[in-house]
Design brief:
Layout lengths: L1 H10 L4 H10 L6 H9 L6 H11 L4 H4 L7
């Protein structure tokens, strides 16, 4: 999932810092180092963060899970 998180963030033209600031405005208490761990796969993402990311990126939940089932 980390690769998808990074792809979506880059497509939106956001740095990790700017994304985290936007998430904080939306009530997600999240620092850049934590978000970096989401993208690297070292930490599982909280559903509350995923919900807000879907709103920020205006995408479907499927885009977060793309390619994770072994099918392209």
């Amino acid at each position: 999932m980390g690769k998808n998180l990074k792809r979506l963030r880059n497509s939106a033209g956001l740095s990790q810092e700017k994304l985290c600031m936007e998430l904080q405005l939306r009530g997600c208490d999240l620092g850049r180092s934590t978000y970096e761990k989401y993208e690297s796969g070292d930490l599982n993402i909280r559903i509350s963060v995923l919900i807000e990311l879907r709103k920020i990126y205006n995408c479907s939940y499927d885009e977060f899970f793309e390619g994770l089932d072994g099918e392209e």
